[in-house]
Specification:
alpha+beta, 10 strands, seven-stranded mixed β-sheet, 11 helices, BirA Bifunctional Protein, domain 2
Length: 327
């Protein structure tokens, strides 16, 4: 082993690399995977006494480093690139990375969240699969109440009734059960109704709902909040409140705005019914509140002046790439 090592040292020291052929010959003779002299020495270490193996291993490793150093020196001197580095032509145009865009419904969702965060609302989310109590009963809609006919529901199970939520009001019930007032809460998400003739889609749309509960909350607070939302979205606009009916608010109102020289309904609202507060163990003699809800699809159509609601679901890149959201 010692004679072989001395012989390799002399070979490394006195071998002159002048050409690429010399380089390949030098590297192959010493570091070749099968017949390289240093490679063979490493394999022979297993046959040496364990007491000498460590010292010989260090010596052979130093020889390998000397070979690599000599190869690197020749390559650097002659400006030869390492074979592992891919060669490229800098004159070829690079591959451009196309930036994505945000869906207009997502833009509108983010805008509404930003608007309400500025006045102290908290944004919360909840499950899309609900039970009957959170979706209907706790909101003053008992099993045989006629208002259930207003929403054609997708039931997943019966007894107990499990369904796809028909509104995001169920999130309000869950929040009021868990926390004590005062609070201001906003929630936005998908809701599901089987509506074959609708200004939305025929199975799903996005709804934004908010509510505010405290000891001194009035209908004037509700009107001011609705006015703030609409002017934040549309700028100066004519707004009209019309009496309406919702089982979970009393009094209730529809909100219209003047759009293209006609009144267009965009949202519903009202003071939270005392029975709803009782259902979540909030004393209606102490606390009052208001709630509101609106569809995101119609609002987005109006702001971006689109004519057909079905375009949301076409996934047409030409349409989607037109939108961006300014944070």
């Amino acid at each position: 082993m010692d004679k072989k090592i001395d012989k390799i040292k002399k070979y490394i020291k006195y071998f002159h690399i002048k050409t690429s052929d010399d380089l390949n010959s030098f590297r192959g003779k010493l570091l070749g995977k099968k017949k390289g002299i240093i490679t063979i020495l490493f394999k022979e270490l297993k046959d040496i006494s364990i007491y000498k193996r460590k010292n010989y291993g260090i010596i052979i490793n130093e020889l390998k480093k000397e070979v690599q150093k000599k190869i690197f020196h020749y390559k650097s001197k002659n400006n030869i690139q390492n074979e592992k580095i891919l060669k490229y032509d800098p004159t070829i145009p690079g591959k451009s990375i196309e930036l994505g865009s945000i869906h207009p419904l997502s833009i509108m969702k983010n805008r509404i969240i930003d608007i309400f965060l500025k006045i102290g609302f908290t944004y919360v989310d909840g499950p899309e699969i609900e039970d009957d109590w959170h979706n209907f009963t706790a909101l003053n809609i008992p099993i045989y109440h006629p208002s259930r006919d207003m929403q054609d529901t997708f039931f997943l199970y019966k007894n107990p009734d499990i369904l796809l939520r028909t509104h995001t009001s169920s999130i309000q019930i869950r929040y009021m059960k868990k926390y004590s007032p005062p609070f201001r809460v906003l929630s936005i998400g998908k809701v599901y109704r089987n509506e074959t003739i609708s200004s939305h889609s025929n199975f799903m749309f996005h709804q934004a709902e908010g509510f505010y509960i405290d000891k001194k909350v009035s209908f004037s607070d509700l009107k001011q909040t609705v006015h703030y939302l609409i002017t934040s979205l549309f700028g100066k606009a004519k707004i009209r409140f019309r009496p309406s009916y919702f089982p979970f608010t009393e009094p209730s109102a529809e909100v219209d705005i003047s759009y293209n020289n006609k009144w267009l309904e965009i949202m519903g609202c009202g003071m939270i019914d005392p029975e709803v507060l009782k259902n979540v163990n909030i004393d209606p003699e102490i606390y009052y509140g208001f709630a509101f809800g609106l569809g995101i699809e119609r609002l987005t159509l109006m702001i971006y002046h689109m004519k057909d609601i079905r375009i949301y679901f076409d996934n047409d890149i030409r349409f989607l790439k037109q939108f961006k959201y300014e944070f």
